[in-house]
Amino acid sequence: MDRLTDHDAHLNLVSKGDLWQIRSVIAEADRFLKDYGLSPEWIGDFNLVLAEAMTNIVRHGGLDPGSDISVSLSLRDGYLNCVLVDTGVSFDPTTLGHTQPEPDQLREGGYGWFIIRNLSKRLQYSHENGRNSLSFALPLEGFRDRLG
Amino acid sequence: MQVTVARAQNALVISVLESRLDAAVAISFKDIIRDLSGTDAGPVILDLGQVEFLDSSGLGAIVGVMKMLGPDRPLEIAALTPNVRKLFRLTRMDTVFKIHDRKPQVETINAAE
User: Fold this and answer.
1) What residues of chain B lie within 8 A of the CB of A107, using their CB?
2) Which fold has domain B3-112?
């Protein structure tokens, strides 16, 4: 597919730090991206990156019960940009996920950042005023060849 | 977490009746497979034909089940949907598991929850 709606689009969502709640945020993001005209395969990749990033915040972020993760999606200039903000403990994923876990080691974890790095671009993290901000982008279909 | 259990010759076939095998259900998935897989030797075939989404937690749980079953009950995977197949390829877990294109023909079916 190389024809998409070419307008900019934005969606802001909020989730509690809970594995069931992040499912509903991901489902809402899925509907938004489907309406925009993206394919199930493309949405599947984004769905996976978002799930890995949010699961990581829930599992390791030490969020206070009741505190939120905010999710901002923005489609423009050939990319979907996604920003996740939370108030949990700071963590820096800069060194994580650069090498692929060896399949023969039969590890039960440690694939998350590898998956995020493989399926997304422009991965950035910052911590300011008690807030973690993690952002990543996926090139939209039809722009992929041009923008790499 | 809903699954069905059936026999196909010497193999036990466990079908996962969930569209998502992710962090929210990974632990209950491991528990239910442990409870249902019994002790008979022979392959255990995990039918993922209904699963449209698998994340690293779900994948880790599948690896955990494989280790739990041990060498006498090799875990095999069947009927991968496109996004799930992609994750197996990306993590090269498709080199670890025997993967069947389709769910095998089964004899009897029991539902479990």
Assistant:
1) 60, 63
2) Transcription Regulator spoIIAA (3.30.750)
